[in-house]
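Re: the multi-chain job from yesterday

Posting the exact lines I submitted so nobody has to dig through the queue logs.
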Amino acid sequence: MPPVTTAPSPSALALRARFGDAVRRVEVSCGDTIVVVARERAHEMLDWLRAEPAQRFNFLVDVTAVEYRDRERPLEVVYQLWSLEHRAFLRVKIELDKQAPLVVDSVVDLWQGANWMEREVWDMFGVRFSGHPDLRRILMWENYSEGHPLRKDFPLRGRFSRAEQVRRALSNELEKHYSLEELSASDAAPYLPADLPQAAGRRPER
Amino acid sequence: MGATRTVTYELGTTGLDAQGNPVRTPLVAAEPAMDTDHMLVNIGPQHPATHGVLRLVVELDGEVVVRVIPHVGYLHSGFEKLGEYRHYNQIIPLTDRTDYLAAMSNNVCLAQAAEKLMGITITERCTVLRVIACEISRIISHCVWAGTTGIDIGAFTVFLWLFQERERLYNFIESWTGARMTTSVTRVGGLMCDIPDGWTQGLREWCGRFPKVLDEVETMLSRNAIWLGRNVDVGIISAEDAINCSLSGPMVRASGVPYDLRKDRPYLDYGTYDFDVPVGEHGDCYDRYLVRMEEMRQSTRIILQALDRLREGPINVADPKVILPPKTRAMGDMEAMIFHFKQVMEGVAAPIGEAYDAVEGPRGELGYYFVSDGTAKPVRWRIRPPAFINLAALPRMAEGHLLSDLIAINASVDIVMGEVDR
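And the result, structure tokens for all chains:
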């Protein structure tokens, strides 16, 4: 392994020169530069990083979020960027205060690829992406009502027993959660036995 | 669906009339009246052409796809959540189960990301063996891809030919790791075990034979009129769009972007191997097929070079804090037993920090992102799933094509639902 660099990437310095205080912090961890930016200007800064000829971070590798075990620490939304031309890597972070609503601007208008990644972050962490065209849950089902599983306050085994989870899933009103235009389950509702939700509720615990 | 209309089918033969002609009785049935010309078709989640539990809701105008809405998550297992409750080495069995067609790529990626976080430099023999592991899993995964894609499109023979080779490779993996699919071959700082005697010779012979099988497969497919008709100019995505959609692996290379982590961000010792990165021109299903076929040949080349440079030596780093002592010593030597106990009970603590490291998996950039707060269990383990991100571009590629092309395009994306849903 070559010696790990501790100098921040030149892109981080360029970002600071261009946006000043909107760059909150620059860190280096395991050789990768991390730029913590202000939420209000993050979209503008990511757009600049993507389009500026000297930077050209045109490949959005990943969008994810991190919540620390320390409850006081803010939740972070993480963008991993790669420049195909300059072969450079940069990690941009936005810190979100957990007491306030978790909202950041969507970057789907910059990278189409962010669509499902942001949906996953919403699903797993409950961070809303304003301006996202289709912010629905993606890995969990749409009427999942136990919260966001990757949050630290979510227990590993889920909030309820398996039997309770099944009961809740089956006793939901189907029509509420499926739209008619996507081959809805509500079409099937007239043909289902009338006592299905009650019958589901009576399932014996295993 | 409100209104219905009554349709009369001429069905059934109940007997013969006086002249001996069959008597047909009309069957009267009610059929829902469609108020638009469009039709909704649900494909999956239990459908062989969706390669797992993928559900596609497709809006059709006649036979033309107007809209595709993929629904994923049927196989969601919460691996990332489970990883937060495990030591770094205990996560390795989970990585087998994400992309189960290329488990060894995942094992290597996890070990690499954890080593980057902990600042561990692995041994030379371990590096070479990990390269071999990565390339074997690439060939296995591409064999499955070519075989199943052939079945989706109507060519059954290649499935049998390539699965035979895949079985032979699995025999090598089994004799190395003891398992065929869930290999768990790496450990942080090294490998679970060394290869058995005679293993390299067998693999070398296999590498000599395998290109001939690829030749046969290409003779079957590359100029086959049906194969061309089903693949050429189907599911085109331009280089610009492919980058914008964050596609990686054969998907982005078939569109003409030479983005390959083995060349662009070399890990292990890939920078020193002599191999080519195949790049397509048109970004259609046919180019993706050509790219994957050539990648299998190049992987064979890399394996042969790696076998040449494989020297005797330790596979694990000489650090008792990271690597378990041999079992015989742990049972007889006090110090070794203490290290054994501490590692099993407490795990290996990583320093505070975070690391993202990626390998070029068979499906693209497979990245693991670890955040550590200084304990033996990661605060966050994120898998950057190439299949998930490639699949997100399916609607864009399929809309405007025929329904049957949707199957071909979906096959060309090469998804593994275990990785998509994690």
